[in-house]
Design goal:
By secondary structure, this protein is an alpha/beta fold. It has three domains: 39 residues; 204 residues, Rossmann fold (3-Layer(aba) Sandwich); 175 residues, Ribosomal Protein S5, domain 2. Helices cover 25% and strands 26% of the residues. The chain is built from eleven helices and 21 strands. A nine-stranded mixed beta sheet has the order 6-5-7-8-4-9-10-11-12, with helices on both faces. A hairpin with a 5-residue loop joins strand 1 and strand 2. It starts with a strand and ends with a helix. It binds thymidine-5'-diphosphate and magnesium ion (MG). The site of thymidine-5'-diphosphate has 14 residues, from helix 2. Magnesium ion binds next to helix 2.
Length: 455
């Protein structure tokens, strides 16, 4: 019997190697190689996709007819905006999120809301009956939404050939298997091959395809990073299980910006769009208290508004206590020294406690300005307005330094209902005329911020 051929794959980037390696030469990650069975095959034969093939020929870029490309309305306003104004025909989109966050619910709702389109919802996780029950419980009726419980990529394509849907949803990529690869569902090789055949199908037939993907504990999409390179858009659905709000954002989008976000609320009858997201933050703070500020930070590629709390009190004993949760203690001490030296505030004899709420650890230097303002607000016992936020790094001379992705931070703050944001003046070059729907205070030094805040 012929021995099946194996190869080693990096679980991080999908690089292939005939031998096991401790460190991936492609992405530099340690200990990510796993052995998987592969079979030599001609990948061009995949996906029974030949029937979708149209003859290709090079064309001049300005002669390509774009007027025929019409984005489809995604059914959900929030999703529509996140995608950059609708679904582009032939786009392959990946929706990632933790288990139980509501990915299946979102895609089923989107499918059911596209009333004038023929939709095929393929699930490898739920039966037709479960899907139909969920759809009717959510109160939807659709004249042409097909459900299919199937995990074999080849069988799915033969059904696609018969039904000829306008939109395809695959729930989830980890359940797909293809005969061309001889390893289990969810393995790197299976995910890559199955996704590749959907990529070809989407491009050749012009049908948009949504693929749902699970997320690992570390927060990255399970399966190779390669999957993120293959698709046109990566959407992340996130939120706290104890919290009913869910945020949808694009971390990659070939057809639009990645600074838009969509906000949903999980109700007992499905997801509801939240058109006015400021309700999300405002409900949590009843009245303004001193020592609390909000900073617009970036986590990876994602903008995130983070609350910092500071408590400054007179030291009861000789040596003042300094403690920071979720923020580097040395950096806090440095910021306190800057406050003392450059602004003349006497903090040396005070206890300072700092807490980043939500259990987050922040390493983004843009939080500096928010931290310093929280400390000062607590020290003076004067609250900072609850619709004020900050994004700026603080240097040793007390200058406010520019930070990366400023447009994303400002528009996120505006979207979340903040009314003013303090940023470095140097950050606003070229953006002076842009309207973010939020008041932007350009500042150069921290004393300037304080006089604007506390008069
Ligand atoms: P689901 O879409 O199955 O999650 P995923 O596909 O991301 O794993 O959503 C599951 C959760 O959503 C489940 O824990 C219950 C909750 N939920 C509601 O609160 N209301 C609803 O109407 C629905 C359908 C689900
Ligand atoms: Mg699901």
């Amino acid at each position: 019997m012929a021995k099946s051929k194996t190869a080693f794959f990096c679980t991080n980037c999908g690089a292939q190697s005939p031998r096991w390696m401790g460190r991936c030469t492609a992405c530099g990650e340690w200990n990510t190689f796993v052995e998987e069975v592969v079979e030599k095959h001609d990948s061009r034969k995949m996906g029974s996709g030949n029937s979708f093939k149209t003859e290709s020929k090079p064309r001049l870029i300005h002669e390509v007819d774009m007027t025929s490309v019409k984005r489809l309305h995604a059914g959900s306003e929030e999703l529509n905006r996140v995608l950059g104004g609708g679904i582009v025909p032939g786009a392959l989109m990946l929706l990632g999120g933790e288990p139980g966050i509501g990915k299946s619910t979102l895609m089923l709702q989107v499918a059911m809301q596209m009333q004038d389109r023929k939709v095929l919802y393929v699930s490898g996780e739920e039966s037709d009956m479960q899907l139909s029950m969920r759809a009717s419980r959510l109160g939807y009726k659709h004249p042409a939404c097909y459900v299919l419980t199937e995990t074999s990529t080849e069988t799915i394509f033969s059904h696609i050939g018969n039904i000829k849907p306008d939109v395809v949803v695959i729930d989830s990529v980890q359940t797909l298997t293809t005969d061309h690869v001889d390893s289990t569902a969810g393995s790197v090789a299976q995910i890559r091959e199955s996704a590749a055949s959907f990529q070809r199908y989407a491009k050749e037939s012009g049908t948009p395809v949504f693929i749902i993907g699970h997320i690992t504990k570390e927060g990255s999409l399970a399966g190779p990073k390669l999957l993120e390179h293959m698709v046109d858009a990566v959407l992340q659905f996130e939120g706290d299980h104890n919290n009913m709000y869910r945020v949808l954002r694009a971390t990659k989008n070939r057809f639009g910006s990645t600074s838009e976000l969509g906000i949903y609320e999980m109700r007992e009858n499905g997801l509801r769009e939240v058109p006015n997201p400021s309700e999300l933050l405002l409900s949590r703070r009843d009245d303004a208290v001193s020592g609390v500020t909000v900073s617009a930070t970036i986590e990876g590629l994602r903008p995130l508004l983070i609350e910092t709390q500071a408590l400054v009190s007179s030291a009861a004993y000789g040596t003042p206590q300094r403690s920071a949760t979720g923020f580097d203690l040395r950096r806090m001490n440095m910021l306190l020294a800057v406050l003392e030296k450059r602004c003349g505030f006497r903090i040396a004899a005070k206890d300072v406690f700092l807490n980043v709420t939500g259990g987050l650890k922040v390493s983004d230097p843009a939080i500096d300005l928010g931290v310093i303002s929280a400390v000062l607000s607590s020290n003076e016992d004067m609250p900072v307005g609850e619709k004020t936020c900050f994004a700026g790094e603080v240097g040793l001379t007390g200058e406010v330094r520019p930070v990366t992705h400023i447009e994303q931070r400002i528009s996120e703050a505006g979207k979340l209902g903040f009314e003013e944001i303090f940023v470095s003046r140097h950050n606003l070059k070229g953006l002076e005329k842009k309207n973010f729907g939020i008041r932007v205070h350009p500042v150069t030094r921290i004393d300037q911020v304080f006089s604007l805040l506390f008069g």
